[in-house]
Write a structure and sequence with these properties.
The chain is an all-alpha fold. It has 2 domains: about 55 residues, Homeodomain-like (Arc Repressor Mutant, subunit A), CATH 1.10.10; about 110 residues, no CATH class.
């Protein structure tokens, strides 16, 4: 009779540290989050954080694992793809403070910027390749979509640029949706 293997204590410790770091980075940002505070949140010695992750940058990279949860658009009419994606991305930014913390950190910290690039390059490009008639254009078009979503998120949630921060959600979706639609479906210039 085979039993299900129990998770190792080290796996549970690593996950507790990762979750504590994710919350701390979201609450304080990269610069103000400290290894000591993260260790206290995880109820472990700070040396254990270093043992498992090596340094703050590596811990941040582990804590900053994000799934953009790209939507299933197989039933979405082609002409509504841009609005659907704009609404999806705006919803992700509104519902995940850790994603906002990553954006704030990416502006000033190279490790955070690299992580943001990886997330958007891999997930948005993979998504775009499933929609575009010519998947070889997916990387460039995904990058253009990312410029819109990252720029809007930066202006709305980080900089709180008054016109964008105060704009009704549906209006912002309509503006962004048109541009994203063009990136997805327009002929290459």
């Amino acid at each position: 009779m085979m039993s299900t293997p129990r998770p190792r204590r080290s796996d549970a410790t690593r996950e507790a540290i990762r979750l504590a770091a994710r919350e701390r980075f979201a609450a304080n940002g990269y610069e103000r989050a400290t290894i000591r505070a993260i260790a206290a949140d995880a109820d472990i010695d700070p040396a254990m954080v270093m043992r498992y992750f090596g340094n703050k940058e590596k811990l941040f990279a582990a804590a900053a694992e994000f799934d953009l949860r790209m939507p299933d658009v197989s039933a979405v009419p082609t002409g509504r793809l841009g609005v659907t994606l704009a609404a999806h991305f705006l919803g992700r930014w509104e519902s995940d403070e850790t994603l906002n913390a990553l954006l704030r950190a990416a502006v000033t910290h190279p490790a955070a910027a690299e992580r943001m690039r990886e997330i958007f390059a891999s997930q948005v490009a993979t998504f775009a390749a499933t929609i575009l008639p010519d998947p070889t254009q997916a990387t460039a078009r995904a990058a253009l979509i990312s410029t819109q979503m990252l720029g809007a998120a930066l202006c709305r949630f980080v900089l709180e640029l008054p016109p964008v921060a105060a704009m009704p959600r549906e209006e912002l979706i309509a503006w962004l949706g048109g541009t994203i639609q063009r990136y997805l479906t327009a002929a290459r210039p």
